[in-house]
Amino acid sequence: MDVELEAASRRVSFSQDGSASTAGSPPTVRLSRGVTVRMAALSGDATLDRLARQAALASGAEVAAAMRADRPLPFGERAAAFRDASADALLVQPGKGSGDDLVDLVEAFRAGCPDQHPAPRVLLMAEDGAHGRVRAALGEHDVETLPDLRSPQGHAALRARVREMRRGANDDVVLRDEAIERAALTLARERGTDVLVLDSSGRSTSLAHATPGGTLTGVHELALGSGSGSDRVVARAGLDRVRRWIPWAVDAPSLLERVFNRARWPDAVAATPLALALEVALAHEAVSQLLAEAAESGIAVERFSHAPAVFLVGHIAQLPRPAQSLLVAVDALEPLAVTTVFRERSNALVAQAALDVAGHGEAAELIEQQELVALVVPVVSRRRASLRIVSAWERSEERVAPGAFYVVPRSGPIDVSSPGAGVRGHGVSGGLGLLIDARGRPVSLPQRDAERIPTVARWYAALDAFGPA
Amino acid sequence: MPWAFGTWSVRHALPLGAFQRAAQGEAVYAGDVLAKGTSVTSTVRVPGARRLGISADELARIARYPLGAEVRRGSVLARAGRRFARAAISPVAGHLVHVSREGDFYVAPAAEAWAVRSTIDGIVERSHDAAIAVSGQCWALSGIAAYGPDAVGVLAMGVDAPIDELRPSRIDVRSRQHILVGGARMAAEAITRAHACGVAGLVAGAAPAGGLRVVYGDDVRAAGEATRDDRPTVLCLLGFGTAPIPREIFVPLVALTGSRAAIHTASARLFAFAPADADFASGPHDLALADDYSGVRPLEGPTEVHREERFASGVVADALRTAEGPIPVANVRPSDAPR
């Protein structure tokens, strides 16, 4: 199998015993992000607009323009926005009422994109036979009717349609986000608990939450990442939000230069600690942005913070030290439950899930291939809390002060409880041990560099994230 | 990114509201107007087919103005009936910008005028409402990002050596209508001064990203940004921060001084109009990204591949050993590699 990176690909082969290697026979499956699908969403009202954004996040489409019929804007502005968007797909969602406003919106689209080549695919999310005026306004386009996006069938149909467009004419392609979702479902079934898979790479960021019962929530942003998607992270989040996670003094203009050079240099390798810290900070903000977008579109992302197991894949899992991967996960996801964090360095998890999607085998026993990183114990309390830690060999008690962030060296299965702080959970401690995080939620950072840098440096030092190699 | 002579097809995107366009097959020179129009913001919707009591399909037959035409206040856009005639009349002066499927007219009052000019000598390949493509032969140099509107001018040197920074003091009104070649870096001060002095565009190895933010706004991206408004035009050839221009690129730029040239920002290319038999063509050369991503430089001198080198960051990767130290293989690319 060929696993697409930013510009290059890496070959992963599986032997009979299930072990993965990077050499082998020509690939039968290609794991790719697919082509970018830019979507223009024309929605009748705010609710439908939010549903369109949810569907875009679930399917990996990029919302290039989103217009609401009930929000008055000059015709020229709307038409210009559609022209600039150069959309591959036009999503039309009629709301209630006569549809006059939506017809105006469709006309603005026609005025903005009269001769677009190739013509965008028009997806009308409405029951057959309804909304004749809207359909008539779309006259010259081939209109494909899908179920209403308010129904689960509509959501699933749109997701499938967009993914089909992303695959293009390549039958051997498995989309990376599909594989991430399949991995999450398989891991949740194997473990019998909720699972969150976090995939953060140079060009894309994905989160897939699955329950043992097979309920899946996936959000995928194919333009945000710590590499070629890094300038978008900065454009959306702002440079200061990236800079705040770097534990050294670095001035904003020179940091921006580094971000821009990284964005135009796919698959670059961070050779210095500063470059690596920048990639860690970018990955952090990419995940935070994805979570913020998902929350804004109405997706229940709170469940992500309660997943008892988090699996890190992609570039974030390939950072030199497990502590660096762990910091991104803990700072971006801000777990609210006792969480076991794993990471997968060889791409085998995603590759195996992709084979499963392609029908070339089952993604079984995926857990064994993972590197156990740490057990994260969030202690959210305004007062000093007493935390009881029970392992097979030892029983101890920690006095945890608010703001504390440190590692207790333990390994193996562990039970933790703190009745006063509302902590109770079980997990497996990894190579780094037990991470006690009492920084509060949401994690806040001082504004001034003179206070922020020592704080962040202290957190990095607690995990020895950038110590001597 | 090396210099190459060839046939290039250049797409010029048009804003809304074009009322005059070059026809397919027309010969144009760089700098010639390809299309003219006025910006469209608010529009007036004039009921057409419904008011006239005809179908939308019939309206096309009796409409008196084509799309894009200028209309006056009171102009009859369409008229139906004989004894009891009914008419669709424009209530404002402006341009007819759209006719809806239901047969209504959209008239945009005259606003700011715009013109799109060709960035290449050639023949109009395709011409439609959203874009005009012109195909022609010339020398071209691809950069990694360009910002601002397209620019046409005469190529001139703003530095003496490829490692020099373009100094604001080298720029004055004598450089008006010129495309100035900077060296390794052009700071925001040089960019804004050049714009104020009427310089058509700037080309350099790199521009500081922070400076680009000052000039083009906080949402500026590494991929570049083609705009239509009155702003400086900047072409970054290699990267951001500091990037000395390789000799293979700089020497032809010197030789081309005085030639007509154009910057097409959407494709981040510099076109230079010089004879095809000029000896500018160069093979790809290697570029190296700085270890901390702060700049790009040409890679020169002997190198040796070393497997699995451990870098200061702790990353283990294949490396090229150079006189300045090891560089990750992934951070070295031929100049013609896609980016």
What can you see in these coordinates?
The complex is a heterodimer of chains A (469) and B (339). Chain A contains 14 helices and 23 strands. In chain A, the strands form 5 sheets. Chain A has an 8-stranded mixed beta sheet with strand order 14-13-12-15-16-17-23-20. Chain A is 35% helix and 24% strand. The mean pLDDT of chain A is 89. In chain A, strand 1 (2-4) and strand 2 form a beta hairpin. With 339 residues, chain B is mainly β. Chain B has helices at residues 49-52, 56-62, 188-196, 209-216, 247-255; strands at residues 4-13, 18-21, 27-28, 33-38, 44-46, 70-71, 76-80, 86-89, 94-99, 105-109, 113-117, 122-127, 131-142, 145-148, 151-157, 165-166, 178-181, 185-186, 201-207, 225-226, 234-240, 260-264, 269-273, 286-289, 296-298, 304-310, 316-322, 325-328, 332-334. In chain B, strands 1, 3, 12, 13, 14, 15, 17, 19, 20, 21, 22 and 23 form a 12-stranded mixed beta sheet that branches. Chain B has a 4-stranded antiparallel beta sheet with strand order 5-10-9-6, with no helix packed on it. In chain B, strand 12 (122-127) and strand 13 (131-142) form a beta hairpin. The longest helix of chain B has 9 residues, at 188-196. At the A-B interface, helix 2, helix 3, helix 4, helix 7 and helix 9 of A face helix 4 of B.
What is this structure, in a nutshell?
The complex is a heterodimer of chains A (469) and B (339). By secondary structure, chain A is α/β, with parallel strands linked by helices.
Task: Please name the defining characteristics of this protein.
heterodimer, A: 469 residues, five-stranded parallel sheet, 14 helices, B: 339 residues, four-stranded antiparallel sheet
List the helices and strands and how they pair.
The complex is a heterodimer of chains A (469) and B (339).
Chain A: E1 2-4, E2 9-11, E3 13-14, E4 20-21, E5 30-32, E6 38-43, H1 46-59, E7 62-68, H2 75-85, E8 89-93, H3 100-112, E9 121-125, H4 132-137, E10 143-146, H5 152-167, E11 173-175, H6 176-191, E12 195-200, E13 205-210, E14 216-221, H7 230-237, H8 239-243, H9 252-263, H10 273-296, H11 302-305, E15 309-313, H12 322-333, E16 339-343, H13 348-357, E17 371-378, E18 385-391, E19 395-400, E20 405-408, E21 412-418, E22 423-429, E23 434-437, H14 449-463
Parallel strand pairs in A: 1-5, 5-11, 6-7, 6-8, 8-9, 9-10, 12-15, 15-16, 17-23
Antiparallel strand pairs in A: 1-2, 3-4, 12-13, 13-14, 16-17, 18-19, 18-21, 20-23, 21-22
Chain B: E1 4-13, E2 18-21, E3 27-28, E4 33-38, E5 44-46, H1 49-52, H2 56-62, E6 70-71, E7 76-80, E8 86-89, E9 94-99, E10 105-109, E11 113-117, E12 122-127, E13 131-142, E14 145-148, E15 151-157, E16 165-166, E17 178-181, E18 185-186, H3 188-196, E19 201-207, H4 209-216, E20 225-226, E21 234-240, H5 247-255, E22 260-264, E23 269-273, E24 286-289, E25 296-298, E26 304-310, E27 316-322, E28 325-328, E29 332-334
Helix pairs in contact in B: 3-4
